[in-house]
Every structure is written in structure tokens, then in C-alpha cells.
Amino acid sequence: MTPNEKEALKKFQEVPEASAIAISKKLAVGVDYCQELCMSLVAQGHLKVVEGGRWPFFAVAEKVAKKKAANKK
After folding, report:
1. Which domain of life, per UniProt (predicted)?
2. Mean pLDDT computed over 56-72
3. Backbone torsions φ then ψ of 17, nearest 5 degrees
4. Domain map of the chain by residue range?
5. Residues 30-57, buried b or exposed e (16+ Cβ, 10 A)?
6. What's the pLDDT band for 29 if we cut at 50, 70, 90?
7. Which of 37, 53, 59, 65 ranks highest by number of CB atoms within 10 Å?
């Protein structure tokens, strides 16, 4: 996972679901680049698509959320 993918995943863990547009503003990167990061994270199983479309909404996949919760204990 690239450093930018790690940072994007951290931002997604702060919100229940978001689009690449919203996350791109938090990361200070272009929307198209952020969309590519999100789709890469979906392919790796870290994110899931909640709502499709031109600018889909993404959320953290359950396995990632469970792993993070287990690490906090």
C-alpha cells in the first residue's frame, strides 16, 4: 500500500462514508487521483462501494473496521 493510500484509508476511518471529492479536499490532492486511490483500495479489499455513480461513495470494509477495533482493545 502506498503512503497516499494509507493516508486516504485513515481519512475514511474518520467518517462513516464519503466520496472521493470530499476526501480529496482533506488530502489536498486532485479529485481524479483520489478516485484512483479509492478504487485501488476497493480492489485491495480495504474499502467498499456504498453508492455507485460517476462519483461513488465509499466506506471502510467490515474486515478493516473489525481489525481496527480489535487493535484498540
Report:
1. Bacteria
2. 74
3. -160, 155
4. 3-72
5. eeeebbebbebbeeeebbbeeeeeeebb
6. very high
7. 37
Domain spanning 3-72: which CATH class is it, in words? mainly alpha
Fill in the amino acid letter for 55: W
CA pseudo-torsion sign 33, 7, 10, 6? positive
Q: CA 10, 41, 60: angle at the middle one, nearest 5?
A: 55
Measure the CA–CA gap between 41 and 73, rounded to whole angstroms. Answer: 25
Residue written as cell 490532492? Answer: 29
Amino acid identity for residue 46 in this structure: H
